[in-house]
Amino acid sequence: MDREIATRLRWVRMYHETGNAGLVCVRCGISRPTLRKWLGRYRDDGEEGLRSQSRRPLNSPNGKVSEADRAKILRLRAERKGARRIQSELRLHGQRELSLATIHKVLCKASVKPLVHARRPSQPKRYSRPVPGDRVQMDTMKIARGIYQYTAIDDCSRFRILALYSCRNARNTLLFLDRVIEEMPFPIEHIQADRGGEFFAESVQRRLMSECIKFRPIPPRSPHLNGKVERSQLTDLNEFWLHHRPTEDAIGQRIEE
């Protein structure tokens, strides 16, 4: 039994035993109106009537929303309109100015579920350059400790050049860049790469400018823009490096093949 109910039940029983309301009030430290209230509740509902009840008013004289407004809000929500849209509709047609908090309160009290808008998944924009050499995608991939693969692939013709180096730095990038310029069967206009430090070195940028090649770095966290070279490296990883060790003999010749 709840402690409050037990205390009030003790007041009621003491009154029934003594029949003296003043004596009960003095001993228990309560007022006569309080004793009369709990005696009446015990007489009407028994022990359940001794439980504390909510003091929240059933009707508020200062309530903003009438039954007509409430019905109009629920009708507009049934038309899949949000709280801000409902507010505009009431302002234009109902000549009523209700806050968003008031509208939300009406919807929550009616247990209306929130609107869910299905979002279509955005498809990445795929493109292909129409002229060979217009854009060459370049990237690096770590194969093992101290072994890095440089890859360059033409966006239009898919002509590809690979090379292995001990680390990815400006010196090795220059060596690979010279090889790409020499072996590509067409002039290169743009080189596109990620924002790795090996491509942003001053010596690399000067080399590109001397060859009149424009450098186009892709935005951060956008590997899909370099999709052809990324896919090429993934294919190499799954179909070649999965079956060959980087330290085996004649690995350079196997790569050339």
TrEMBL record:
It comes from the Bacteria. GO terms for molecular function: nucleic acid binding. Gene3D superfamilies: Ribonuclease H-like superfamily/Ribonuclease H (3.30.420.10). One of its GO terms (biological process) is DNA integration. InterPro entries: Homeodomain-like_sf, Integrase_cat-core, RNaseH-like_sf, RNaseH_sf. Residues 51-63 have a biased composition (Polar residues). Residues 46-66 are annotated as: Disordered. Residues 126-257 form the Integrase catalytic domain. This is Transposase. The lineage of its organism: Bacteria, Pseudomonadati, Pseudomonadota, Betaproteobacteria, Burkholderiales.
